[in-house]
Amino acid sequence: MHSNLPKVLHPVAGKALVSRVIDSARCLSPQTLCLVYGHGGDVLRTTLDEPDLAWALQEPQLGTGHAVQQALPHLKNEGTTLILYGDVPLIRAETLKRLVDAARDTLAILTVELSDPSGYGRIVRDDAGRVMRIVEQKDSSAAEREIREINTGIMAMPTALLGEWLGRLSNNNAQQEYYLTDIVGMAVEAGLTIRTTCPENEWEVLGVNSKVQLAELERIAQRCTAEQLMEQGVRLADPARIDVRGELVCGRDVFIDVNCVFEGKVVLDDAVEIGPNCVLSNARIGAGTRIAAFTHIDDASVGPANKIGPFARLRPGTELAEDVHIGNFVEIKKSGIAAHSKVNHLAYIGDATIGRRVNVGAGTITCNYDGVNKFQTIIEDDAFIGSDTQLVAPVTVGRGATLGAGTTLSENAPPDTLTLTRARQISINGWKRPVKIKK
Question: Does the annotation mark 66 as catalytic?
Answer without folding.
Answer: no
